[in-house]
Amino acid sequence: MNLERYSRQILFSGIGEKGQKRLLESSITLIGCGGLGCVIANNLARGGVGRIKIVDKDMVELSDLQRQILFNEEDAKNKSPKARVAVEKLRGINSSIQLEAKVCEVEPRNIENLIEGSHLVLDATDNMKTRFLINEACVKNKIPWIYGGVFGSMGMSMTVVPEKTPCLTCVFGEFPSFPELGTIPLINAAPIIIASWQTTEALKILVGDENLNPDLIYLDLWPGSFRRIKIKRRKDCPTCIERKFGLLEPGKK
Amino acid sequence: MVSSIEIKLNGEKKMVKEGKTVEDMIQSLSLNPQRVMVMLNSELLLRTKYSYSLKEEDELEILPFFAAGG
């Protein structure tokens, strides 16, 4: 196996040749291919994650080009499916890994199939309901996942390792407690930085480094602030303690 | 006379009048209670408990949540 393309990353002590080989044997599912998702897909494909599945139902639009780094004017003109365009672009960048596009909604009926066999799930979705669904499916199937969300010049992220760290319900309460916001203001640096944070956490998980970030991180680029917020598992968490999966298995008590 | 207590709000020390609730703090930040997440001493505070009266040395985090993926 020729590892030359990963030589800089192999020189980095946190990864090395052993870590690189682990990355090449890893499988991830990326849910959402917008501002966060494009950067995550780009970083992980270039970094040599062996199998990447990209899930997104949307088509490229002109207003996406301000920040969604894998798309161009032609894609917007053709209203091409984001997942498929991302995979095509990334194949031209790293043809030695397996890339798969799924142009579909993420729903209770298909999420477990979409994440099956993945070592990690990356969240880059645009709504809280899907994020809570990811949380339930990943907690149920004991697959780590990494939350990322952005607004304006702000963003936050947390890493969820089922049975070890707080899950989304521990920190945000139960769905459906959050109204969706619709079209939001956003500068392009916010998703680029949060997605880069997510992919760094992803690399650590995939190479087996257990020094994961334990906090919810929160940053606001405009004033230049960064904070770590300590979080704890809820003793009565309906999702990760009581293992009730109300979105995934509606009606089941 | 109402005395003051010292709390930490979003990482910074702050003096507040005794009896102030989490809901008051959300309002003081001009945030919509429907669109924030609140951690009290590193644990989630459910929305039904925003009437909680703050105590000396409480550490409160009130953050807007971010649902967008960019």
Notes on the structure:
The complex is a heterodimer of chains A (253) and B (70). Chain A has 253 residues and is α/β, with parallel strands linked by helices. Chain A has a single domain (4-229), classed as NAD(P)-binding Rossmann-like Domain (Rossmann fold, 3-Layer(aba) Sandwich). Helix content of chain A is 34%, strand content 17%. Chain A has helices at 7-11, 16-24, 35-46, 73-78, 82-93, 111-115, 128-141, 168-172, 189-207; strands spanning 27-31, 51-55, 98-102, 120-123, 145-151, 154-160, 216-220, 225-229. In chain A, strands 3-2-1-4-5-6-7-8 form an 8-stranded mixed beta sheet, with helices on both faces. In chain A, strand 1, helix 3 (35-46) and strand 2 form a beta-alpha-beta unit. Chain A is globular, with a radius of gyration of 18 Å. Chain B is mainly β. Chain B has one domain (4-64): Ubiquitin-like (UB roll) (Roll). Helices cover 10% and strands 36% of the residues of chain B. A 5-stranded mixed beta sheet of chain B has the order 2-1-5-3-4, covered by helices on one side. In chain B, a hairpin with a 2-residue loop joins strand 3 (36-40) and strand 4 (43-44). Chain B is elongated. Chain A binds chain B through residues 32, 34-37, 67-68, 123-128, 131, 148-151, 154-156, 170-173, 177-181, 184, 186, 188, 190-191, 194-195, 218, 227, 229-232, 234, and chain B through 10-11, 34-35, 37, 39, 42-44, 46-47, 61, 63-70. Chain A: One of its GO terms (cellular component) is cytosol. Chain A: It holds the Pfam family ThiF. Chain A: InterPro entries: ThiF/MoeB/HesA (IPR045886), ThiF_NAD_FAD-bd (IPR000594), Ubiquitin-activating_enz (IPR035985). Chain A: GO terms for molecular function: nucleotidyltransferase activity; sulfotransferase activity; thiosulfate-cyanide sulfurtransferase activity; ubiquitin-like modifier activating enzyme activity. Chain A: This is THIF-type NAD/FAD binding fold domain-containing protein.
